[in-house]
Amino acid sequence: METAGESHGEALIALLSGVPAGVPVDLEFVNRELWRRQQGFGRGGRMKIETDKAHVLSGVRHGKTIGSPIAIEIVNRDWKNWEEKLPVETGDPSRHQPVESPRPGHADLPGALKYNFPDARYVLERASARESTSRVAAGAFAKLLLRHLGIEVASHVIRVGRVEMNRPAAWEEIVAVTRKDEVLLSCVDAETEARMREEVAECARTGDTVGGVFEVVVHGLPAGVGTYANWDERLDGLLAWAVMSLQAVKAVEIGRGVTAAESFGSAVHDAIHYADQPSERPTRFVRDRNNAGGIEGGISNGENVVVRGYLKPISTLRKPLASVRFDTREATAASYERSDICVVPAAGVAAEAMVAFVIAQQVLAKFGGDSALELKRNYESYLEQIRQY
């Protein structure tokens, strides 16, 4: 997967290769994924301008993938306000809109230093979380591939600022949140979500921002995906890398990794049992809990894969922190760009895309196939092997 485009540029681009031919493509589903990324209590004015839609340029014909690279364009409606500020040609320098003082916590300063830019405008344009729109579009295709095999990916929010949901969420609850037509903070518990909204509202009153924790769950993935053999092919490592690559994510947790570090082994590891009767899972080896987050030794173990992302507060504050001017080196307030207060639910949707992409990549590596039919035949043969074990 490759992405291109700037936050206020003409369009965003996603390029996805390696998808087998014959995977059914539901563009309404792809566009709903893009819509979900734009929702949430605490989003800023930019989301009132954009209506993200996927324009598929190649790789899909007559409602199915054809095995060639898939190119997707998402037009930025805000471009009409930036054509003279960010022209491709030299343009009129007096109309450019520089970012004159870097924002603490953003890529502004290190990016300007790295590329020797006189201000942080070009850094902001690419480092912006607007880039994750392309990933969500590509991730929707990964989800469609996984759905063809009965594997689903969804997310929910378990913490916003100081407010945390202190109970596990059932898979059915998480799915129900993703299907809502009104998205607030994507928490499965109504009482907790109400307190989360109060936390965001307080930040809106004070000119601050707030982060939180989202949880992505993969349902239906069989045991055996990933490997312990090579360090750079371990499933947990690949997922941590993918989720950490999202803007503002500062920590990633698999299962109960954080609390496991402060607990005894007897309280952490998931005892193994053998069920007398078969269930919806292909194996009768089961666990009464899932502290491992569905991964042991870098390999999926048949339980739900659970990945949490810890999101820092948005770097752009309406009451800016102290900074320094790029041109004079004088002390000043950090630049302000129109921004959000809370994006934890949206980050969860972007993380779903990244998790789906990694899982799809690993599924294709294990089961192969140039067509969806061949992939499914290989996959079902493996499931039968697991059932007979």
Characteristics:
five-stranded antiparallel β-sheet; Chorismate synthase, AroC fold; 12 helices; 18% strand; 389 residues; globular; alpha+beta
Find the CATH superfamily. Chorismate synthase AroC
Main beta-sheet strand count, sense and barrel state? 5 strands, antiparallel
CATH class placement? Alpha Beta
Radius of gyration: 22 Å
> Reading side by side through the largest sheet, how are the strands ordered?
8-7-9-15-10
Q: Which CATH architecture is right?
A: 4-Layer Sandwich
Overall pLDDT level: 95
Would you give an account of this structure?
With about 400 residues, this protein is of the alpha+beta class. The protein has one domain (about 1-389): Chorismate synthase, AroC fold (4-Layer Sandwich). Helix content is about 35%, strand content about 20%. The protein contains twelve helices and 17 strands. It has helices at about 25-40, 45-50, 110-115, 120-125, 130-145, 170-180, 190-205, 235-245, 255-260, 265-270, 345-365, 370-389, and strands at about 1-5, 10-15, 55-60, 60, 65, 70-75, 150-160, 165, 210-220, 250-255, 270-275, 285, 295, 300, 305-310, 320-325, 330-335. Strands 8-7-9-15-10 form a five-stranded antiparallel beta sheet. A four-stranded antiparallel beta sheet has the order 1-2-6-3, with helices on one face. Strand 1 and strand 2 form a beta hairpin. The two termini are about 35 Å apart. The mean pLDDT is about 95.
